[in-house]
Amino acid sequence: MDRMKPSIAALPRDAWRLARPYFNSERRWYARTRLTAIIVLNLAMVAMDVVFNFWNRAFYNSLQDKDWDSFTNLLLTWNTGKGGFLPGFTGLAMIYVLVAVYRTYLNQGLQIDWRRWMTAHMLQDWLSDRAYYRIGLASDGGAAKGEAKATDNPDQRIAEDLRDYVATTLSLSLDLLSNIVTLFSFLSILWSLSGPVVVLGVTIPGFMVWAALVYAIAGTLATHFIGRPLVGLSFRQQRVEADFRFSLARLRENMEGVALYGGEAREGAELGEKFTAIRTNWWAIMQRTKLLNGLVAGYSQIAVIFPIVIAAPRYFAGMLDLGGLTQTAGAFGSVQGAMSWFVTSYRELASWRATIDRLNGFKAAIDAARAASGEGLQLVAAGDDNWRVTGLNLGLPDGRVLLANTDLTLQHGRATVITGRSGSGKSTLFRALAGIWPFAKGQVSTGPGTRLFLPQRPYFPLGTLRQAVCYPADPTGFDDATIRQALTTVGLGPLGDQLERQDAWGQRLSGGEQQRLAIARALLIRPDWLFLDEATSSLDPQSEAELFEALRRTLPHTTLVSIAHRSELIARHDQRLDMADLATP
Asked: In the chain, N or C: fewer CB atoms in 10 Å?
């Protein structure tokens, strides 16, 4: 899989593909202005490093010459010796601190604004055209074992990968810019300080510059050779970490079911397997990082002494004073460090490459899902009050066909029940009527008015009971008395005093209570068409029948379409459609 072996060379293109929309958006002037200010402050830091380089030379020369006046002036005010005008350390340090503080402050402000914009737009794209639903249904069986899927763990990609992408993009790009400017700023200094050297009868001018170049190239090649596997390992580590976290969250959400089954051992074993994947991949990262750290640490240590050793002959020959030697070492360190940016940033580049691949893969999956949203079942307005399904072809993700070229009519004002054997496709037909099932073709002519679909397992948003009861409507649209009356009608009257209580209502309420609360939503919203997919199946037959009659009594102008299997409930409908009859050619 190409995504598992990405190219470092393609990083700028792939990173810019994600960044460009923000810097061309309605926030472009804020983004560009703040980024420009950050760049200016970064360049100011480089300029101050150059000044410090000359200051160090003058300072060490004052120590060598035992020049007390120059020593104190360089520390406290300014000095105008043979090195020209140089500000004192006190003023330089104050300016340096101020620039460093505001560089970080502006950087953090740009980070959160950029992340907010990208998060909002990725969430909008993910939720639009029900891309999240289609992605969740999509099969990715073509991915080999151990490879990452383009759609795994969307929560991590939106919450963590976007955060890491923004922070690392700014960090690496600004650091690279600073290193480029540092390179050119110190190159002329190092060239003038190093002088010529004769090698095999050939005079090489600026030999320290060439030494820094050879040293950096050797380090870069060695680092890339050793560190390249970290890109794929970092990519996989993000996935296995997210898989483990998702499994923990899933266990928390289903803790009662696990407890009733006594499935702790099984859950523990599965969680252990997922953590083993983390440990195995982490161990591989450790082994590769150990080699890379050994190289980088050795490379950095040699770089400390290397310029002094190279320049020492000129110093002992009297061609350099102590300040010149320290300035040469400092300039060499700056030039060599700038040339070695790839070496010192390789681990961060590997992690950044993995993050960019995950985001680009996820974005491509969203775009593909939204592009396909126009396919499948077409919902159009009907010419009369009925719902009509024409030429319906209903299938499953694995290609199995449930209904072929089927027509059916749901009559306005008549309660219709859809029945059939388990697995015959009743719930799939329910999703197709809602217009969310992507593996269907045909046309649905929808009757006039509003509609509400209640699945067998209700969804509960995070928040108060009031928000849970009114979902998906705005809670402010209903007064307390109306909400309490709806709860009383469905048999949840005691909950009327807990409307402002925040709780995990999907776990706090029993299955039957959850379904009663979902019916209360219908009583509040009062749709013209109400579709119920075994929405009362967790209740006993008598309670189910009573709740259905309460629906018909309270919502006399609502047309009910139910999926049911109990004869008592089936008998309370005006029309029956059986899946076996619909599937008959």
From this structure: C
